Automatic annotation (TrEMBL):
InterPro entries: AB_hydrolase_fold, Lipase_secreted
UniProt keyword annotation of Hydrolase present: no
Highest classification ranks of the organism: Bacteria, Pseudomonadati, Pseudomonadota, Gammaproteobacteria, Moraxellales
Protein name per the record: Lipase
UniProt cross-references to SUPFAM superfamilies, sorted A to Z: alpha/beta-Hydrolases
Keyword Signal applies: yes
Length: 408
């Protein structure tokens, strides 16, 4: 409860979008690092259409976790972004700045896209706390992001649509994730444009790996005023994404890890496409798990689920709309426009390394610049743990223009 109150306070006490403020420049609004005045949430939601995507709505200075050795400042933010259909929404996230002053040309930017945490507001990474439901994953993330701060990059990390802010989270929706990541970079520039370079890189893990690939395909077109240099996909999900639904449909005894994960897939699809009524598709046993997933995070579902519901779907469930929607989010339909690096563990039980390898080969056949790093016997989080080493090599290759010859 303490963290929930802190989370709500972050949103309601810091938001600013009163009519008297609309129209002020970013310089006038954000000249000082202060918490913005209180504003009514519904009023905020109704007025953000007047602002450009990426407009900063709130900024709150926070203490820096001890896991960061190279961070100078950390802020929790809200910003104006776009939802599944391009509609104006409020999205939250956090900023990490390196120690010291920004260089003359500004800090280059890393946009971080996080992995699966759940669909409940308590699963938003910007509200992480010691002992919280996303803290174990966040500690691994911290190590990866700190290496970027050490290199002199500013980090912007979105929570995604509906995580920590009004509305449901459209988990794995490609359009929403592109908008949320791109607009988070814009938010940095709307806050202090002279402190940040136009050059940016996107990196994501798992769900965020799919987001990074989607940004690699659409990000430069969506934000031509910025300079997207490259994308890094760590154990990316989303290859033949409809396959997970087909698996639980045909397997009478699914693995408990899959069963704990699947409600997030269903709820995300329903959030993106309200015509998909997931409550009408699932069995009574699965309905109980689905209800739990609306208020619990993935780590909690994995810990608490002892046996998978049998069956997952009702016998007469019409899955065609669901399967069609999931297929449209699959990464194999995305064609990157910037150099792309993959890092994937060969013993990953959540993202099959063969799927990542297949997509990499697809990218190479299209003669696009890409590089693939396999981690022998690496699990799902090892892609994160090993990313600093491979990132250093990748950035050096980008500087020397040798990435175009990386495909094998």
């Amino acid at each position: 409860m303490l963290n929930q109150r802190k989370h709500l306070s972050k949103f309601s006490s810091a938001l600013v979008i009163a009519g008297s403020i609309v129209g002020l420049s970013a310089t006038e609004l954000y000249a000082a690092d202060t918490v913005m005045p209180k504003a009514n949430i519904s009023q905020t939601q109704n007025n953000i259409a007047a602002l450009l995507p990426g407009s900063m709505l709130s900024l709150q200075l926070e203490s820096i976790p001890t896991s960061y050795q190279h961070a100078g400042q950390r802020y929790v933010i809200t910003y104006r972004s776009r939802g599944v259909n391009g509609e104006p929404i409020v999205t939250s996230g956090y900023i990490l700045l390196p120690k010291g002053q920004a260089p003359k040309q500004g800090w280059p930017v890393l946009a971080w896209a996080h992995g699966t945490t759940g669909v409940a507001d308590t699963c938003a990474p910007s509200s992480d706390y010691a002992g919280g439901p996303v803290h174990s994953l966040q500690e691994v993330i911290d190590g990866a992001l700190d290496s970027w701060l050490m290199r002199g990059y500013a980090v912007i990390a979105t929570d995604y649509q509906g995580l920590g802010t009004p509305g449901m989270h459209p988990y794995m929706n490609a359009a929403s994730q592109v908008y949320n990541v791109v607009d988070s970079v814009r938010a940095l520039h709307s806050w202090k444009p002279k402190q940040f370079s136009k050059d940016w890189v996107v990196m994501g893990h798992s769900q965020g790996g799919a987001a990074a690939i989607a940004v690699a395909a659409q990000g430069q077109k969506d934000a031509p005023e910025l300079n997207l240099k490259a994308a890094i996909a760590l154990a990316p999900g989303g290859y033949q994404y409809e396959g997970i639904a087909e698996y639980v449909q045909t397997n009478p005894n699914p693995d408990t890890n899959v069963a704990a994960f699947f409600p997030i897939v269903l709820l995300g699809a329903a959030a993106a496409d309200p015509s998909i009524n997931v409550d009408q598709l699932v069995s009574p046993d699965m309905q109980s798990l689905l209800n739990q997933a609306r208020k619990r995070c993935l780590s909690e579902l994995q810990t608490e689920l002892e046996q998978a519901p049998q069956p997952i779907f009702k016998k007469d469930a019409d899955l065609k709309p669901l399967l069609s929607y999931l297929k449209r989010q699959s990464i194999e339909y995305m064609k990157p426009t910037v150099p792309l690096m993959f890092v994937q563990g060969t013993a990953d039980h959540l993202v099959d390394h063969r799927d990542t390898q297949s997509y990499y080969q697809q990218v190479c056949k299209q003669k696009l610049p890409a590089v693939y790093h396999a981690i022998p016997n690496g699990d799902h989080r090892d892609a994160l743990r090993h990313s600093p080493k491979y990132t250093a090599e990748f950035l050096k290759s980008l500087e020397h223009g040798s990435i175009a010859k990386a495909c094998k």
